[in-house]
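Students often ask why we bother encoding 3D structure as a string. The short answer is that it lets us treat folding as translation between two languages. Here is a chain of 188 residues written in the first language.
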Amino acid sequence: MGADKAGVSLAGRSLLCHVAERLRPQVGKLAVIGGQPDFAQQIACDWRDDAIPGGMGPLAGILSALEWALSGGGADVTSVVICPVDMPFLPHDLARKLSPLLAEVEVCLAKYDARTQYMASAWRADLAPALRDYLKEAQNLSIRAFTARCSTHEVPFELCGGDQPNPFANINTPADLAAAEQWLSKGP
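And here it is in the second language, the structure alphabet:
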């Protein structure tokens, strides 16, 4: 879309603000990984850059989140819920459904309409050393490739009716943004 998506305006508010509004009631603390530090200030949360610079993709951001949780997220932070900034319609129960299962598995992934949502997931923070080691040697930097090495569980989310947007829809194009604006103009 030609800009840092965190600052892209949707219905008069940044995408980051929409995502934070969805996640804040579900989690103890929020952190923004990557992008510009001033975006994190907009929503009064911590900011971290990618743990490994150089375009390592989403896994480097996930590593930053896991290391943040271990080092400064809080004494009781043992897991993180991750999502991209371009999913403004995330389920209001995403963390509640995913996080409790981390007692049994290392990564819990949302599943919607038969598709695994690798970017809407919960991770145990103690995976940080394994992920850092993986990123040092990996040829395949996809989340799917790394999670294939982990114990995982997929949690299905119910399909929304025609009056609700796909909760895992990404805003990737101007057309996606226009569709999201149109849905929001109708009201929930």
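Translate back mentally: The mean pLDDT is 88. Keep this in mind for the problem set.
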